[in-house]
Amino acid sequence: MSERAARPRTAPQAEVKAPAWPGMPVLVTNVALMIAALVTVVYGSVMAEGAAGMLAPAGRLSAAVVMIGGGLLYLAIIGPIIFLGLKVVRPNEALVLTLFGKYYGTLKSEGFFFVHPFVSPVNPFGPVAPVARPTSGALAAPGAGRRMAISLKAETLNNDQQKVNDKLGNPVIIGVVVIWRVVNTVKALFSVENYKEFLSIQCDAALRNIVRDYPYDIPRDEAELSLRGSSQEVVDRLRGELQGKVEIAGLEVLEARITHLSYAPEIAAAMLQRQQARAIVDARQLIVEGAVGMVEMALAKLNENDIVKLDEERKATMVSNLLVVLCGNRDVQPVVNSGTLY
Q1: pTM confidence score
Q2: Averaging pLDDT over each range in 3-7, 25-29, 129-133, which range is the top one?
Q3: Is residue 289 part of a domain?
Q4: What is the mean pLDDT of the chain?
Q5: What is the radius of gyration, based on Cα positions, of the chain?
Q6: Is residue 117 scored above 80 in pLDDT?
Q7: 258 and 280, same domain (yes or no)
């Protein structure tokens, strides 16, 4: 086996602008030439009939045959071949062209162009349209995957929600939406089989890998990042990791957002009780801190204005009564003491 045959084939990586010319002048010229060829065929046929009906020079009959043959050649072969080279490119779309199996170039500019008649555009998804996942209830248009143009528009990937264990081992349900676009058409078509399916799989893998590094939620006094409290940091890391994985496919991840985050149904009730208990404890703690501050202020005002002299035992009784009033969750029932504190 020769060295050239043993060398592995590598897919093209860089985009090349395909040589193209304005399509409208070529179209008008080709139509005019086909009309002229038709007129030539008709005129040659009349000339041949006239030459056959009377004794005419041999050169006249030969000229008629040449005119008919040339006109038919242009009408049947040359004209249709030129029509094959006319391509239309819509805004934010691109045509990736190959010539006899080799990459020829990419048309990214919108308009009507004439290219080499024997080039063929590459279908982004092969001969069969892919089954797209429904997003937001929308259905894919019939035949949308069979179009030869590759879209350069920003697109949305909304994968199914996943059940993943967080850092603490709790199963959570999480869903993300990714906004992306194609920036290198050559890599998108020749480096991977299906760049949309490739992006979807890499998004699921990156999401699972990142969720395992964060707990679902943490107390407010802790500085650790969590899925619920640090969603922006989580999606920024997701975007960076996903961009590194899809670089080979010529894709750019513009944005990532968490669309759904909750505990799995099997532990949702228990975790809800835990959150409620934590909220009650936090509320009680805030009430106690406020009550202690009010008691300190009351004692300071009494001593400052010299309203009444309280010994330590009476201060303790007053503090106890004020804390009961301020921290209780029911209305206070006043009790009139007709005797002394002792």
Answers
A1: 0.69
A2: 25-29
A3: yes
A4: 80
A5: 40
A6: yes
A7: no
20-42 as b/e, with b when 16 or more CB fall inside 10 Å?
A: beebeebeeebeebbeebeebbe
Q: Stretch 320-339: mean pLDDT, rounded?
A: 64
Q: At residue 296, does pLDDT exceed 70?
A: yes
Q: Which residues contact 56 (CB under 8 A, 6 or more apart)?
A: 50
Least Cα distance to 124 among 70, 175, 197 occurs for: 197
Shared-domain flag, residues 201 and 283: no
DSSP letters, 130-179, are: --PPPBTTBPPPTTGGG-SSEE-S-EEEEPPPEEEE-TTS-EEEEEEEEE
* Residue 120: other Cβ atoms inside 10 A: 16
Model pLDDT for residues 156-200, shown as the tens digit of each residue: 999 888 889 888 888 899 999 999 999 999 999 999 989 999 999
* CATH number of the domain residue 246 falls in: 3.30.479.30
92 and 163 in one domain?
A: no
Q: Which helix (H) or strand (E) holds 327?
A: helix 312-327
| Tally of domains within the chain | 3
* 179 phi, psi to nearest 5 deg: -105, 125
